[in-house]
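## tool: complex_structure
## caller: assistant
## args:
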Amino acid sequence: MSGIEELRDFYERMPYPPPLTSLHEHRELYKNPERRRATFHLTWPFAPFRENLEILIAGCGTSQAARYAMREPKARVTAIDISETSLRHTRDLQRKYDLRNLELHQLPIERVRDIGRSFDLVVCTGVLHHLPDPDDGLRALRDVMRPKAAMRLMVYAPYGRAGIYMMQEYCRRLGIGASAEELRNLRATIEMLPPTHPVSGVLRNAKDLERSEAMADAFLHPQDRAYTVSEFYAWLDRCGMRFGRWTEQAPYLAQCGVVARSPHVERLAALPSPLQHAAVELFRGTMVSHSCIAYRDDDPDASRIIDFADDKWRDYVPVALPWTVCVRERLPPGSTAVLINRAHRFTDLICAVDCFEDRLLGAIDGRRNLTEILQFAGQGDDANHRARSFFERLWRYDQVVFDASGCAIAGELEAKISFASAARAPSKSSCPDGSTSS
Ligand SMILES: C[S@@+](CC[C@H](N)C(=O)[O-])C[C@H]1O[C@@H](n2cnc3c(N)ncnc32)[C@H](O)[C@@H]1O
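## result:
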């Protein structure tokens, strides 16, 4: 069997992720329109929000394409997969929820050009690392991206998966297959492993490993490779792609979490981003995957980045990520709140907020830009400086994304801002230091 036939055979027998019969939870989540807006600006900070996108889900598995079609009702979603079993599960969801904006094709990614269309957004998660030639797959996807398109990409990372690769090798040596009995025995074996085995940490964090399909996908996969941060950047580069951002960036940054307290923080922070992220990957030691937003390398907008170097940050509109939570109990001294992004796997990535910052936090409504929000900070250079650092920190810690589509008219906006915005001030509550906060 060729690599691709072997892969198809595997996913026909063991479709992944374990199939869903209901999208109810997903539908409820996306009733909040801010969720769609936040995801849009995570992907395209400099573009105005729009919903009529052409989306390609490449290697859609059992439910991803149906989830996208449901949450993006104004988009046209095209999905491809080599596994007819996975497509059948997707078709069942399509029928059940009457998803007319979804089109399915049994087609390998390597032949995606055959569809004869181009896309605004390509989603490819958990797939390319399984291909016999991942470069070939990534280049094929790049070729169907429109000039300003974005790609949401996820591939495995090696250090956190070391235990998985050991157990894959163990299964290969013993010739373990994917029959129900062999999977039962494999589960029993894995439960006997010492708690210090490198696979134990992965198992603790795995959501679905009690399902046979997930067990098979992790331990019996015929083809599976992983990318370090450096390999990942080099891979994008040689396939004509440009790195945009990590979907969750805090785990890669020297300024976030425990890394920020390391005696090496200054050296780390002085490195160019790709080298810094590669070093922080080594520091963290247990990353299991990398998820990023990437663009075509010939997209001139792809080089625009969110930064706070000059004054354009004043035009950014912060949009809070709806999957973050604000905790107001058992706080560190001097804090009025602690912010947590539930997508972070590392528990040190909490963002503590003091009373001054809390006032600014309460002014974020997804509409006000930072100039308007600064009205809540009080006057003076110090207040301005603290406010700017706070928003940079919120952004680094994946608490907000920015709608920076107004940046083109920088300067004009400032002139238009009236103090009427003060009338829309958030409600106030008392802070420990006696001042007020929202
Ligand atoms: C691990 S699943 C991920 C599914 C989905 N992307 C998700 O995140 O839920 C990998 C999927 O990629 C599909 N696949 C593997 N190789 C492929 C290829 N060359 N072309 C298209 N699909 C492929 C498999 O059939 C399987 O459904």
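## assistant note: The first strand starts at residue 54 and ends at 58. Residues 3-158+224-303 form a domain with the Rossmann fold fold (CATH 3.40.50.150). Handing back to user.
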